[in-house]
Design brief:
Layout lengths: L14 H10 L9 H38 L2 H7 L10 E2 L11 E3 L9 E3 L2 H13 L6
Antiparallel strand pairs: 1-3, 2-3
Helix pairs in contact: 1-2
The structure holds zinc ion (2 copies).
Length: about 140
């Protein structure tokens, strides 16, 4: 015996009831509570999705934020490449490799200085000396 079109037995006010509406082709209404149940279910699901995504998004923003903070320290970078007019020489390293050909990436292990890219070997030598001056004393 088919239940299509029959409203008796529907568990109104729940997602199970809402699915029974669909199955039986009986329109769900505000009065029976099944539309409300559907809204609550959707809200719960999207809240769960938000909660799942939020930590990642926060981490990404934090990472971007620290990158921005690094870029907003022109004084430090200017001091390092004071003797070199090449744009970007001595700036903190970004990405896996130096951006331009023949540039040199310097990172002295144990130095408080971050890895930096230099436009030439002579600038890089300067960078090494600078990094060696700023060894952290933890190790
Ligand atoms: Zn209902
Ligand atoms: Zn240079």
């Amino acid at each position: 015996m088919s239940v299509i079109g029959k409203e008796e037995g529907i568990e109104h006010g729940s997602m199970r009831g809402y699915r029974q509406h669909i199955y039986r082709k009986v329109p769900a209404t505000e009065e029976c509570g099944c539309l409300q149940a559907l809204r609550e279910e959707n809200a719960r699901k999207s809240a769960a999705r938000q909660a799942g995504r939020a930590p990642k998004r926060a981490a990404r923003q934090q990472w971007n934020g620290s990158r921005l903070r690094g870029a907003s320290r022109p004084e430090a970078d200017t001091a390092i490449r004071a003797d070199c007019p090449t744009a970007g020489c001595g700036q903190e390293a970004v990405g896996r490799f130096p951006k331009q050909r023949a540039w040199v990436r310097i990172h002295v292990t144990g130095s408080a200085e971050p890895a930096r890219d230099y436009c030439s070997g002579s600038c890089a030598t300067y960078g090494i000396a600078l990094a060696e001056l700023r060894m952290d004393n933890v190790a």
